[in-house]
Hints:
Blueprint: H1 17-25, H2 32-64, H3 69-118, H4 121-126, H5 129-171, H6 173-220, H7 222-227, H8 231-256, H9 259-283, H10 289-330, E1 349-358, E2 368-376, E3 380-384, H11 391-398, E4 406-411, E5 414-415, H12 421-427, E6 428-431, E7 440-441, H13 442-446, H14 458-467, E8 484-485, H15 494-506, E9 512-516, H16 524-535, E10 542-546, E11 558-563, E12 566-569, H17 573-586
Helix pairs in contact: 2-3, 2-5, 2-10, 3-5, 5-6, 5-10, 6-8, 6-9, 6-10, 9-10
Amino acid sequence: MNYKLKTTEDIDEKTSIWNALKKMAGLFIVEKKKIAVALVAIIVNSGMTLLGPLLMGYTIDKYVLKGDYRGVLIFSAILLGIYITASIGGYIQTRVMGAVGQRTLFRLRNTIFTKLQELPLAFFNQNKTGDLISRINNDTDKLNQFFSQSLMQFLASAFTIVGAAIFIIVINYRLGLASLVPAAFLIIITRLSSNWIKKINLKSLQATGALSSEVQESLENFKVIVAFNRRDYLKEKFAVANQNNFKASVTAGYGNNFFMPIYDFAGNIAQLIVLVYGIYLVSQGNLQIGLLVSFLLYIGRFYEPLRSFAGFWSTMQIALAGWERISEITNLQSNLTIHPDANTIKTQSIMRFENVSFGYPEQNSKVLHDVSFNLDKGRTYALVGPTGGGKTTTASLIARLFDPSSGNIYFNGKDIRSYTPKERTKSIGFILQEPFIFSGTVRENILYGNTEYGNVDAEKLSEILKQQGLEKLLERFEGGLETKITGNTTTLSLGQKQLIAFIRAVLRKPDLLILDEATANIDTVTEQLLEEILKKLPRQTTRVIIAHRLNTIENADEIFFVNGGTITPAGSMEHAVDMLLHHKRSS
Length: 587
């Protein structure tokens, strides 16, 4: 299955804005009561704001022009009360929606991260870590800004615009219609440019993700960069990514501010129309001076929010672009689903491959072709072959990190797809070629995902490790079980990391243990100690060893030669060596 996320060229420009907004609105279902409070506050704020110009015009005509200052003071006090009420409504709306936005951001990030945990290894092989981090951090924050700030401002502006338009038409419909003509042109321009704005904002978000990926890759591999003195190469790569991000951001900035001068110009034209036509109507006795003042104020109430629409439209396009990148992840489904009703067979083997073929989605060729073999309980198997021959791929299929393209894999007579992840990882241990260590302590790392010993105290855990002969490995760590670890950093040697991975796997007492170059970075004395520990595993435990060093497989019960899409029994150690040498000569 292809899990490659979209690039800018894959964007569907015809995606319905309304449909996208409806899907995004689903994020706020649990906050509907709070949002209702915010909407009431918006209506109060907009309603009070709209009453102001009408009362001002009324006061001018009835009191100012007649010199009745008592009436002016009374209506001034009324206006003050109206504006205080409007300010309170605005404060409530801002505070409520700010909290709603943060809670939604919290839930959305949890949703994305949970989804990432459900996706198979193939997804992470096909996508860059930095870009995924950018989607979780940057894109979700754009959505938060849109909903907690811009959307509420938009609703407030919408109420104000509709109300102002109604007052304008009621006061004088001819003057009102003339003053609204520039708004019609704004609607057309906004509609025509929406897809372009969305595309450049999506490209900007993707460029930010690519920049994050470049930084993450450089920092993770800095030791190699220093060792080979390739700082110049990384500087060039970062400069290219930074330049692309700069260009995309500048283009997005131009696009997002594209509407501002147009909206300003339209508002100024509308005011000019009102002044010229309004003064004419006043001179003809068809409009009072106070109402003309009200009219001018309502034109401001109408076009000023329209100016904020320019910012809202840009923010919405950024949010839509971010939502498209986020929904790509949330809509994905793992292809490693559980099949409880899958086939079972009668077999004495712990693992059986039947006509298994497999190829990675990003590659055109298959790694394995119609492979069949059995692994019996309690025996030790070695997979040998040239680099890239398919040894680790075979081990990954055994552990169900991938599913085969065709064929069936059985574990203890049951289709491996019928096991839950918890059942499978308890029964199948995997010591990876490049073990990953988490931030915390040695204790937390060796008990990672271990439900049996996860809650035991330090004294009990030490006793368990001693029984399995693992306590000597802890001597390699200065603080024993409580040794502090700072992520997958250089605070530990590769050998120490492999020891932690080894203890983590062996402590589970799995039915089948896969060792993928598990002793590659360990000294000879420690390697002998590990062999002694493996001998203490239950007699029925099956071991699958992947190694390039022949001394690590000399005690295997059976050796398989993996190369060219096939898995061939190699027979004796001498035959396996001959097959390896023959491959080197022929290649």
